[in-house]
Design brief:
By secondary structure, this protein is α/β, with parallel strands linked by helices. It has a single domain, classed as 5'-nuclease (Rossmann fold, 3-Layer(aba) Sandwich). It contains seven helices and six strands, in the order βααβααβαβαββα. It has a six-stranded mixed β-sheet, with helices on both faces. A hairpin with a 2-residue loop joins β5 and β6. α1 crosses α2 and α1 runs parallel beside α3.
């Protein structure tokens, strides 16, 4: 049996999913595929706190946020961080996301944050991609030739 991909979703992926008007948006599909057990989702307490804060800031119903947090607590792999190296000088808050990915042995870090994307396509063996690229990987698809992946 093939091992499941391990991924960290940046806060902006959760926000995009819950702000989307389309239940079939790429970010919603990623969350649905996680809940279906198609990949291992990695999270850390600081990232979880940021998700709660950003969803609350964007006016997402508190019950919806609480339901997400309960699902994350039950099925995501919580990565303990004892140290967070400073890597992303332009946005030190992103260091936690990167540390979660490296300490958790992630295959993918999914983001639309330019500071993380500026690190390049890969960081310490972790592919840094946008949501659509990750979704293509989960589906086993290749991106259409007329669409840039990142």
């Amino acid at each position: 049996m093939t091992e499941l991909l391990r991924a960290v979703l940046d806060t902006n992926i959760y926000v995009a999913a819950f702000l989307s008007k389309s239940p079939t948006s790429p970010t919603n599909e990623i969350l649905n595929r996680w809940e279906a057990g198609e990949f291992v989702l990695l999270i850390t307490s600081a990232l979880l706190d940021e998700v709660i804060e950003k969803l609350n800031d964007r006016g997402i119903d508190r019950q919806i946020t609480q339901n997400l947090i309960a699902r994350l607590d039950q099925t995501a792999v919580n990565i303990f961080l004892d140290a967070v190296p400073a890597v992303v000088a332009a946005d030190p808050d992103d260091d936690v996301i990167l540390a979660c990915a490296t300490n958790g042995g992630a295959d993918y870090l999914v983001t639309c944050d330019s500071h993380l994307l500026d690190l390049g396509e890969e960081y310490q063996g972790i592919k840094i991609v946008k949501a659509l690229s990750f979704l293509w990987k989960l589906r086993g698809d290749e991106p259409p030739s007329d669409i840039a992946e990142n």
